[in-house]
Amino acid sequence: MAILIPSLGFARFDSRGELRLAERLKDFLEEVVVWHNLPVGPLDRHPDFIMLRVSLP
Fold first, then answer.
1. DSSP 3-state percent helix, strand, coil across the chain (nearest 5)
2. By three-state DSSP, how is residue 4 classified?
3. Which of 47, 55, 4 is nearest to 25 (CA)?
4. Given phi > 0 = left and psi -120 to 50 = alpha, else beta, which region is 46?
5. Cβ–Cβ contacts within 10 Å for residue 52, how many?
6. Are strands 49-53 and 3-5 parallel, antiparallel or unpaired?
7. Peptide bond into 42 cis (omega under 30)
8. Statement: residue 56 has pLDDT above 70
9. Which H or E run includes 38?
10. Confidence of residue 53 (pLDDT cuts 50, 70, 90)
């Protein structure tokens, strides 16, 4: 199960499709951290999702 930041209960999604994708990512990905709507770079762009695969011991 993926780790979502912020978690589904606290995240604000721009569309129903983003919410459905976040639910699928959480349920079907293993060893992945997913950030949603995180400000990135000097212009504070907000990509929908950023995923990082982590190796858990």
1. 25, 25, 50
2. strand
3. 4
4. beta
5. 10
6. unpaired
7. no
8. no
9. none
10. very high
Residues contacting residue 50 through CB under 8 Å, at least 6 positions apart? 34, 35, 38, 40
Q: What is the pTM for the complete model shown? A: 0.82
Q: Is the pLDDT of residue 57 over 80?
A: no
**12-44 pLDDT tens trace:** 898 999 999 999 999 999 999 999 988 999 999
The Cα 26–Cα 7 span in angstroms is 10
Residue 55, Cα to own-chain centre: how many angstroms? Answer: 17
Count, residues in the chain: 57
pLDDT of residue 48: 92
Alpha helices per DSSP H over the chain: 16-28
